[in-house]
């Protein structure tokens, strides 16, 4: 009986300890570890500290409701942080970890890949000689359920959705978290920039206004990397027509254009297609079934010329080529599909027939290289110890997409803050958030044109993550440096609009 009681107590203790351990995976919402580091950027050694861990999200009653995993790189030896820019970095999804730009774009370490962005073994990381850490400190933020970020264990799924999973919810709690971070790390006087990629672009666009209106925090710049539509209404006609320049770029890369176009450089071809899209294709599609037959055939011939598809296929789709079909069709006769977010990537489907690829060739390649590198980097370099799974993509659905006014919110933030500038970075081969629609955003965001001098756009010869290509990694980071520099006002220059007369 005593032996039985001993084993019974032991089993209860083991079960309790395991339950406690499982719970403790998620309850340490306010702790960090700091490690020193050094990287050579542009030939200059840059020493820094990397602080990583969790910082709480508080509710209105002062209760911790979540812990966000973050990594904060701060260059050492800076005497005056009031002049040192702070860049706050988000990725997208929604539901994506803040990993892509962290270890492949702006951070001091990048994953080991080849010069075009494909996985190589052994997996790992290397120094980033193009990091912007020489000119700005950077914090990478993981929203709830991404990376190691989690809500408190007691919170059910319905409450999580109410607090975190939606356009407005996301912006509101992240603005509160940024306030906590800026206060705790004493960065209120620093120039501040937000950078977001993909769904991170409506996130930072909305944050620009939320931070001003609810936290009285004013920014110097917002950087939109591969932006979404930002809640700016397209309508069915522009939505169909605006894809054409991207189709041309992808077809040019795969050498599917007519010889006279193929012999030109990409950036010399695209302006012609952009002009045709706005001036001729959009009005033609607007006429729908009432477009005269002769005009219909003429338009189909032009679309075929600019896409590498046959006139027959274009006519069968009523001049409106779905992107999923294009990814399947362009190289169908060669037995490949092309990637959605980066159409340089090739995939292999089970069958040549069909109207869409079996899988996203580019995303599987990226997960192949990023996942082991990030798990290795967090444990072995940042010294962050946890048994939690690092969520490259976490459960955040259903996502409430109602009331998405983020593009207009960014315009309003710019109007209210004369210091605030915007930079857009887009890859020509991105079919998910295509480059021409990122230009369209800027045109529609500010119809008055009064803010156009504070908006800039840059294009790159790669896809959604343009920085995975070695050449674009350098160029894109240099563009960030230039943008940060020109967004810092000269000493004594007030944030003020002036009449010209």
Automatic annotation (TrEMBL):
Is Signal included in the keywords of this UniProt record? yes
Q: Name one GO biological process term.
A: proteolysis
Keywords of this entry: Carboxypeptidase, Hydrolase, Protease, Signal
Tell me the leader sequence span: 1-22
Q: Which GO terms describe its molecular function?
A: serine-type carboxypeptidase activity
Q: Which residues form a coiled coil?
A: none
Supply the InterPro entries for this chain. AB_hydrolase_fold, Peptidase_S10
Q: Which Gene3D superfamilies match?
A: alpha/beta hydrolase
The molecule here is called Carboxypeptidase
**Natural source organism:** Flagellimonas hadalis
